[in-house]
Write a structure and sequence with these properties.
This protein is of the alpha+beta class. The protein has 3 domains: 75 residues, Alpha-Beta Complex (DNA Primase, Chain A); 84 residues, DNA primase, catalytic core, N-terminal domain (DNA primase DNAg catalytic core, N-terminal domain); 122 residues, 3-Layer(aba) Sandwich (Dna Topoisomerase Vi A Subunit, Chain: A, domain 2). It has 12 helices and 15 strands. The strands form 3 sheets. The protein has a 5-stranded antiparallel sheet. A 5-stranded antiparallel sheet has the order 6-7-8-9-10, with no helix packed on it. A hairpin with a 4-residue loop joins strand 3 and strand 4. Helix 2 packs across helix 3. The longest helix is centred in the first third of the chain and has 10 residues. The radius of gyration is 25 Å and the shape is globular. Bound molecules: zinc ion. The site of zinc ion has 10 residues, from loops. Zinc ion binds next to loops.
C-alpha cells in the first residue's frame, strides 16, 4: 500500500501538533525558518508558511523537504506505479489468450515538461495598478527599456509580497505550459538578483522557445532581458553555457545566431562548436549585453554575424577581443 502524501509526511517528518486542531507545525523549508512557521493542515492536505507566504499541497511540501522535483514526487505517490506482473501458464497459445484477456495497465506518457504554479502574491504587470506600478516603472525605465508590447507579449508579472516580494516574474513556457520562472529583484539590493523556484532545472528549457519556434532563424542570448530586446525569435539559455537538452531544442532551426554577453566570447565559440551540424553564426558583442543595444543595432549585428566555424571566429577568440 502506498501511503497518502499526508500520511507519509506525518510518518517521516517531525511535526509538532498544534493543540486540538488538524494542524501540525514544522520548520519551513522555503525560508530560513527555525520557529516552525509552516502550518500543515492534515484534513485539507495543504500548508501555509506564515513567515514567507509559501503555500501549497502536501506533494509540494514533500518535494521541498526532500529536494526533489514535483513531478517525481507525484509519480512516487501515483496509484499507477503499482507493478503489474501477469501470471501466465500453459502453452504459448493459451498464454497469448490469457494475456489478451488481461487488462494491460495503461502507462501514462511521462510529461515532457513539468508544469509549475506561479508563486504566492503573483500578479501580471498589466492591468496596471497601484501595486504593479513600481514594477512597470522598472521595466520601462532606463535600465530595462522595455515597451508595453514587450511586457504584454512576454507575460511579465510581479510579486507584491512573499518570497518573491519586489521581484519581476519572468515566466518560462514550454509547450504552452508554465514550466518555471525567474524572479528578478527591482530594488538593486536583494540577493540573489535572480531567484528561481525550488527544483526548477533551467538547463532543460529555453526562455521564449514557444514563440521562437515559429521562425526559421533563432538568436541565442544568455539572459531573458537580452532575448526580449533581440525580438520574438530570440531564446535565452539562462546561463553562459548550453546544455545537451537545449542543444536538442535548437536542432530544427535553419540558422542559429549566438549572441552572448561581451564577457562570454569563449563560451559563444564553445557553443558554436557544439552545434556542429547546424548552420551557426556568432555575434561577438564588443561591450555589455544585448539589452544595452537598440533593436535596430541588434538586427544589424545579426546580419553581420561571423560564420561559427570560420577563421574569423577563431581569431576573435585567440586575440581575446575584436
Ligand atoms: Zn517559509
Amino acid at each position: 500500500m502506498i501511503p497518502s502524501p499526508t500520511e507519509y509526511l506525518l510518518e517521516n517528518y517531525e511535526f509538532v501538533k498544534n493543540g486540538g486542531t488538524p494542524e501540525y507545525k514544522i520548520n519551513c523549508p522555503f525560508c530560513q525558518d527555525t520557529k516552525q512557521h509552516l502550518y500543515f493542515n492534515t484534513r485539507k492536505s495543504v500548508f501555509n508558511c506564515f513567515k514567507c507566504g509559501e503555500k501549497g499541497t502536501d506533494l509540494y511540501l514533500i518535494s521541498a523537504l526532500e529536494g526533489k522535483p514535483l513531478y517525481e514526487v507525484k509519480k512516487k505517490f501515483s496509484k499507477d506505479t503499482k507493478k503489474f506482473v501477469p501470471v501466465v501458464t500453459g502453452t504459448l497459445q493459451t498464454a497469448m489468450a490469457q494475456l489478451s484477456m488481461l487488462e494491460m495497465p495503461r502507462s501514462r506518457p511521462e510529461p515532457t515538461f513539468a508544469e509549475v504554479e506561479y508563486p504566492p502574491f503573483y500578479r501580471p504587470v498589466f492591468p496596471l495598478s497601484k501595486e504593479t506600478g513600481p514594477f512597470y516603472q522598472y521595466l520601462i525605465g532606463p535600465k530595462r527599456g522595455l515597451t508595453d508590447q514587450d511586457i504584454e507579449e512576454n507575460q511579465l508579472g510581479c510579486c507584491t509580497d512573499g518570497t518573491y516580494k519586489n521581484r519581476v516574474i519572468i515566466p518560462i513556457f514550454m509547450e504552452e505550459k508554465l514550466v518555471g520562472y525567474q524572479g528578478r529583484d527591482i530594488t538593486g539590493t536583494a540577493t540573489p538578483k535572480i531567484l528561481n523556484p525550488f527544483g526548477f532545472n533551467k538547463s532543460k528549457v529555453l526562455f521564449n522557445y514557444d514563440r521562437a519556434a515559429k521562425f526559421d532563424e533563432v538568436v541565442i542570448a544568455e539572459g531573458a532581458f537580452g532575448a526580449i530586446r533581440i525580438g520574438p525569435n530570440a531564446v535565452a539559455t539562462l546561463g553562459k553555457l548550453i546544455s545537451d537538452e537545449q542543444l536538442r531544442l535548437l536542432e530544427p532551426f535553419k540558422r542559429i545566431t549566438i549572441m552572448l554577453d561581451s564577457d562570454a566570447h569563449e563560451e559563444a565559440d564553445k557553443t558554436a562548436r557544439r552545434l556542429k551540424n547546424l548552420n551557426v553564426f556568432i555575434v561577438f558583442l564588443k561591450t555589455g549585453q544585448p539589452d544595452d543595444y537598440t533593436r535596430k543595432e541588434l538586427e544589424k549585428l545579426v546580419s553581420e554575424a561571423v560564420y561559427g566555424r570560420s577563421l574569423a571566429a577563431l581569431s576573435t577568440i585567440l586575440e581575446g577581443k575584436l
